[in-house]
Amino acid sequence: MQNFGRVMMALAVDVSRFEGVPMAPPDPILGVSEAFKADNNDLKLNLGVGAYRTEELQPYVLNVVKKAEKLMLEKGENKEYLPIEGLAAFNKATAELLLGADNPVIKQGLVATLQSLSGTGSLRLAAAFIQRYFPEAKVLISSPTWGNHKNIFNDARVPWSEYRYYDPKTVGLDFEGMIADIEGFASGSLDEDAFSVRLFVKRGIEVFVAQSYSKNLGLYSERIGAINVVCSAPEVADRVKSQLKRLARPMYSNPPIHGARIVANVVGDPTMFGEWKQEMEEMAGRIKNVRQKLYDSLSAKDDSGKDWSFILRQIGMFSYTGLNKAQSDNMTDKWHVYMTKDGRISLAGLSLAKCDYLADAIIDSFHNVN
Ligand SMILES: Cc1ncc(COP(=O)(O)O)c(C=O)c1O
User: Fold this and answer.
1) What is residue 142's three-state secondary structure?
2) Is 118 touching ligand 1 by the criterion CB < 6 Å?
3) Average of pLDDT values for 323-349?
4) Confidence class of residue 295 from pLDDT cuts 50, 70 and 90?
5) 8-27: pLDDT as tens digits
6) Which of 150, 182, 282, 335 could lock 361 by a disulfide, CB 3.0 to 4.6 Å apart?
7) What does the DSSP 8-state code read for residue 119?
8) Ligand 1 near 346 CB (within 6 A)
9) 49 CB under 6 A from ligand 1?
């Protein structure tokens, strides 16, 4: 009765209790997608978010995911809660994928793996752990990085600073700057994610690794990933895992099951695993073709003699164009190309057919806007 009375009183006052809550700025990446949706121009292109699209610029559900979901439906699996640490078969497959199934650290029980909410949620959990157990620690973040990395550590109250990574002069890697900023920390390989992680582990370095199946398996909205902590002794791994569970429980209680089952089916089955690798190669191949075509279009159309080969020297889903904020604004305002203001474009959202158009937009922005 008393509580009810209080609710009525709250409704009766004409000034909102939330009056002092300011409007938050739109997210720099997801805000780009919202602006893209609101644009009615047929030429529009969304190169902001890192989500894979087909050559027809449509979202793509991997065949191997559809196959796993069909199997799951046939088995008639239930929707009971998972334990805090997630699906055991998922955690096993995920740690093995990251470190290699025969890695001694797995056999020796040195790895604490907890299913969590894609890369973001897994990293947020690691940040909460760092804040609690390493209050003196400072996190190093590459410059530039995905903007949310800073939010994650800010919200967890973990201090961070940046290390040099990108050189705007060459639109490439600032190798000397990077080594100078992270000296004593880097082990050398920049090539493959798993290779560098395994090298750290092989050298006996204790690591946190946040894993995500958003991009490689196209499971963006399933929010599926994991945090792995490789420790120096099995008892330590047990204690670390117990504390990660303790942190996860009040945050979100336990993780969702659907994506975990898909991953466990695909990664845990040799045939499906092979099919997945093939589909990943196809996706990566399409992105590589688009990268090459964008370079060809830029070189063919731009008669200023500018060297665009930095596009080919970069790797992965994204590319830095070297465009500044004003030039990136021109890309959006004049050409309907939606991208982040640091000049980054997602090649995964580009098709071969749109490369010429994008090259025109980049050349115009580069030469005609300061
Ligand atoms: C560059 C980059 N890193 C990380 C993420 C995190 O993705 P997730 O939390 O889905 O693993 C994203 C998502 O858009 C991204 O664009």
Assistant:
1) strand
2) yes
3) 96
4) very high
5) 555 555 789 999 999 998 88
6) 335
7) H
8) no
9) yes
Could you write out the three-class secondary structure of 46-88? ECCCCCCECCCCCECCCHHHHHHHHHHHHHCCCCCCCCCCCCH
Burial, 250: exposed, middle or buried (Cβ in 10 Å; 0-12, 13-18, 19+)?
exposed
CB of 265 within 6 A of ligand 1: the answer is no
Record the tokens describing residue 63, joined without a space: 């065949």
Give the residue, out of 141, 148, 166, 314, with the most ligand 1 atoms within 8 A of its beta carbon, to mutate for a pocket test.
148
What does CATH list as the number for 28-61+275-368? 3.90.1150.10
Other Cβ atoms within 10 Å of 178 Cβ, number:
19
Ligand 1 proximity of 212 Cβ (cutoff 6 Å): yes
In this structure, whether the domain defined by 80-256 belongs to CATH 3.40.50.2000 is answered with no
Nearest atom in ligand 1 to the alpha carbon of residue 214 is 10
What is the tens place of the pLDDT at every residue in 183-228?
A: 573 332 223 568 888 889 999 999 999 999 999 899 999 999 999 9
State the number of CA atoms in the 13 A half-sphere of 264 facing the CB: 15
- pLDDT digit string, tens, across residues 268-291: 999 999 999 889 889 989 999 999
Q: Measure 147 CA to ligand 1 centroid, in angstroms.
A: 10
What distances in angstroms separate CA 276 from CA 239, 283, 323, one per listed residue? 34, 11, 35
The residue whose CA is least distant from atom 14 of ligand 1 is 50
Distance 179 CA to ligand 1 centre (A): 25
- The answer to whether the Cα torsion of 72, 74, 79, 82 is positive or negative is negative
Residue 268 neighbours by CB under 8 Å, 6+ apart: 89, 92, 93
Amino acid, single-letter form, for residue 122? S
Terminal C-alpha separation, the chain: 65
Ligand 1 centre to CA of 347 (Å) is 15
Query: What's the mean per-residue pLDDT of the chain?
Result: 91
> How far apart are the CA of 204 and the centre of ligand 1, in A?
28
Cite the residue boundaries of each domain of the chain with CATH code 3.40.640.10: 80-256
Ligand 1 proximity of 141 Cβ (cutoff 6 Å): no
Measured from the Cα of 223, ligand 1's closest atom is 10
94 lines ligand 1 (CB under 6 A): no
Q: 370: buried, middle or exposed (CB in 10 Å: 19+, 13-18, 0-12)?
A: exposed
